[in-house]
Amino acid sequence: MKPTRLRAWRNSTTLRFVALYLFATASSGVIVFGFVYRASERLIGQEFRQIVAADRAEIGASFARGGEAAAAALVRERMLGDPDRVYLLARPDGTAAAGNLGSWPPTLGPGEQWRIMRLYRRDLPEAQEIGLATAPLPGGWRLAAGRSMSDVDRLRRSLEGSLTGALLIGLPLGLAGAALLVYFVNGRVRHVADVAAQVGQGDFARRIETVGTHDPFDRLGRALNDMFGRIETLLRELTTLSDSLAHDLRSPLTRIRARAESALGASRTPQVQANLQALLAETDRMLKMLSDTLQVSRAEAGIGRERFEAVELGALIDDLADMYGPAAEDAGATLAAQAPAAPVLVMGNRQLLAQAVSNLIENALRYGAEGGSIRLSLEPQPEGVRLVVADRGTGIAPEHRDEALKRFGRLDPARSKDGSGLGLALVGAVARLHGGRVALEDNRPGLRAVIELPAA
Amino acid sequence: MTRKILVVEDDQATADFITKGLSEAGYTVDHAADGRDGLFHATGGQYSAIILDRMLPGMDGLSVLSALRAGGVSTPVLILSALATVDERVKGLRTGSDDYLAKPFGFAELLARLEALGRRNAGPAEAVVTKLSCSDLEMDLLARRVVRAGRTVALQPREFRLLEYLLRHKEQVVTRTMLLEGVWDYHFDPGTNVIDVHISRLRKKVDEGFARPLLHTVRSAGYKLAEYP
Lengths: 456, 229
Prior knowledge:
The complex is a heterodimer of chains A (456) and B (229).
Chain A: H1 2-81, E1 85-90, E2 96-99, E3 115-120, E4 127-136, E5 142-148, H2 150-200, H3 216-266, H4 270-300, E6 309-312, H5 313-330, E7 334-338, E8 345-348, H6 350-368, E9 373-381, E10 384-390, H7 401-405, H8 423-433, E11 437-442, E12 447-454
Helix pairs in contact in A: 1-2, 2-3, 3-4, 4-8, 5-6, 6-8
Chain B: E1 4-8, H1 12-24, E2 28-32, H2 35-44, E3 49-53, H3 61-70, E4 77-81, H4 86-95, E5 99-102, H5 107-122, E6 131-134, E7 137-140, E8 145-148, E9 151-152, H6 157-168, E10 173-175, H7 176-184, H8 194-207, E11 215-218, E12 222-225
């Protein structure tokens, strides 16, 4: 469920990225082609205008020197050389004396420098874009010299063809490039995320692979690795510290206990003996708190994971129900385990799991025994299993449940029947050590303490 | 059988306490104050058991233990350590110690465990035992049957294993933690007196209605299954 959702999310990022990439590729192509087209069109236009202006000047001069016949001859000569050239030597009434246009277009003025019009030529069946320059000649005659713009059309068509071709080849290439890029980026991000997750779960020796370049990925990797290294060092220091703290506190406690025990053996006075017994009991209580604190710290630090093995939870709860059964009966409750027929396996530390469940049973006995029934059960889930210890006592109000899970967060001081107040904190630490969590739920009435564990 | 114990412990007060107690219990005690000295003594001397601290100057306890086992010395070793968490205990046991006791400890607990170690070592070379007995109480391990003075005692499977453990350690003090470890294989300390409740159930079945009780409570130590307290 979770991985699928994760993949869907990643895919949508991928899709968005590819779409953006394609859009950018396509639009930059179009823009480049647009600029090329405009520039070429302008260049061609300028050239045409020069040619046309030169034609107009030469034919005009020839008319002035040799009259109609000379100009018409020059027009015919020019037309032969190049089919794109357009001329009209018009009489004062607008009819053609020479050239390949039928008659003088009514909208065309006599002194135009450059005008593009769509006109029919006498020698072509279709109308054409024609760039024209005109000049008035002596005697009311007029001259139009022009050039078919079909070159520009051809240029446009050719550019459009190239653009289509470029996009047809470029888009799949861009797509593949984008996909590769995304694959590469995702791969590196995934690796970073995986390693970070493993470190987060307590595998502190894991490091992100770096390639030694100075790109942001490598820098990210190195920065995270430095952080992981620091965490590992701090953790090792913490472990050393807690070990030596345990040792340093335990040594004087050992001596106190030893001396109290020697004194107890030597004394024959009942009152002294009673005091010494109480002293021993208090020493043991302090000791239990010390070991529980240590156990919580170590579990939170991920110590104990190296001894993970397959643990069958059905057998575990049967075992513990059997162990606590008589004690529960003495407390006026029945304790029953309901394990499913099929084995329920998790990877875990059997001792720590048993200790966690036994803490929950002790809690149920201490605060929920008046409800009569305490049940241990397993609820298999798609991603793991819920181990439930449910009682029918007074339960814990929803607003106090978080507090109950905290270290030393014993609820009501008035209810402090022994216990170090670390019971639930240890359960939480053990659950997290196994990649799971603890939840306190309402049993209507009573409390359902749940250890959620991932499947083996 | 030499009743000679080697104590490897750097804390003088604790070493004195152990030495004094063991001497009163009839043992001869040698003391080594650091790991190297301890290893030297352990390799040379004939001891019935070694009490070994873990955090020692010079060479830590687990290294001493590994060196001993690698050198073929099979003397039973009881680790006595302030490293008391469950995982540390299991680590100690897997390194090759025969028992693991956390500091601070009750002397009775230490003595009971030492006795159990000595017994294990002195026993016949693992002949397959099918019957256990104490006075008029008999246990047939194959038929899973318990009879006292000719009367069948009906036991739950767990009670059977509890009684079996007590019978295998008869005439010895067995502590609550020894039972928890030996019968349930749990190395943590349950807060409630779960073991006491089990024992009182077992006692009802084994001793009620018979003139002579066999299952005795040893004050501030544990229990003992024996003909005489």
